[in-house]
Design brief:
Shape: globular
Order of helices and strands: HEEEEEHHH
Number of helices: 4
Helix content: 25-40%
Distance between the termini: 51 Å
Strand order of the largest sheet: 4-3-5
Strand content: 15-25%
């Protein structure tokens, strides 16, 4: 039985070795350094919120930006990323929060 080489292994080579933690965008699937992505978490009310300071507890999911938000909603990626714990996602509210800019 032949094993086919994974296409993802090639993408790892494109990132610098000492760049830090690498995360995957749930919208487009691109692998980037964690600092380049926006972290999302499930808030205390069950809704998905933007975590700009990366301090909120819980499992995080990452987006490249507003452009990937529609793709993530279409792919139903929030349910998978938060393992079913996320409530309904309002793309307009989340899009405004993503566009508000970094707090860091």
């Amino acid at each position: 039985m032949r094993l086919k080489a994974r296409s993802g292994s090639k993408r790892k080579e494109e990132l610098p070795a000492n760049a830090g933690p690498v995360r995957c965008c749930i919208g487009c699937g691109a692998r980037r350094v964690q600092e380049e992505l926006t972290r999302l978490v499930v808030g205390p009310e069950g809704g998905v919120v933007v975590d700009r300071q990366r301090r909120l507890p819980g499992r995080g999911a990452y987006l490249c930006g507003v452009g990937c938000l529609a793709a993530a909603v279409k792919r139903k990626a929030f349910g998978r990323a938060f393992r079913g714990r996320a409530g309904p996602v309002d793309p307009s509210v989340l899009g405004q929060a993503l566009e508000s800019g970094p707090v860091r």
